[in-house]
Write a structure and sequence with these properties.
The chain has helices at about 5-15, 25-30, 45-55, 60, 70-90, 95, 105-120, 125-145, 165-185. The chain folds into 2 domains: about 5-55, Arc Repressor Mutant, subunit A, CATH 1.10.10; about 60-185, Tetracycline Repressor, domain 2. With about 190 residues, it is mainly α. The chain starts with a helix and ends in a 5-residue tail after the last helix. It is flat.
Length: about 190
């Protein structure tokens, strides 16, 4: 048993039982070991959850970084969509990710922000746009994953029926339009 095996099995357990039911006791049983042996790899459950979150984000982290010739708007949209798709890959993926610090991803986040700045977005707006898009995405996925009817419930009178993906895309478009207006960056 090694650290990677523990994380892989913990993510499998997450997908089976959900975040609330993930425990070191259940994980140890799944691995066929005694619970204290898990502490050899992770001092606390919080450390384990952070490693699970980092591993769960691997598909998004593997996406190519933007290049100077890329359209910043198209890249911004696709980067945010990739983040959403990755959160949706795991049961309770947004809850697992929420509140974690992306320590292993800080260089990539800096490079993404630098790309926006290099495309003409003022530094503070680039930072806030990345933060707002990330938090909007986590919140959207939290709502989606908490919806037992998967968006099929009848909305209250006077509200249009809208599925989770359409709602996400509408909100993302508003963030991008607001960023364009705020920065005055329409064309590169």
């Amino acid at each position: 048993m090694n650290r990677e095996t523990v994380v892989t099995e913990a993510l499998g357990l997450l997908d089976e039982v959900g975040l609330d039911a993930v425990s070191t006791r259940r994980l140890a049983k799944r691995l066929g070991v005694e619970q204290p042996s898990l502490y050899w790899h992770f001092r606390t459950k919080k450390d384990l959850l952070a490693a699970m979150a980092e591993t769960a984000m691997a598909p998004h982290a593997a996406q190519p970084l933007p290049t100077p010739g890329d359209d910043w708007r198209g890249w911004f949209l696709e980067n945010t969509r990739s983040f959403r798709r990755t959160l949706l890959l795991r049961r309770d993926g947004a809850r697992l990710h929420a509140g974690t610090t992306p320590s292993g991803d800080l260089d990539r986040i800096r490079r993404k922000t630098d790309f926006l700045i290099g495309s003409g977005v003022p530094e503070r707006d680039a930072q806030m746009a990345m933060l707002a898009a990330g938090r909007f995405t986590v919140g959207s996925v939290l709502e989606e994953q908490a919806d037992p009817g998967h968006g099929t419930a009848t909305p209250p009178a006077g509200l249009p029926a809208i599925d989770h993906e359409s709602a996400f895309e509408a909100g993302l478009a508003l963030i991008l339009e607001g960023l364009e207006r705020r920065t005055g960056v329409r064309d590169r």
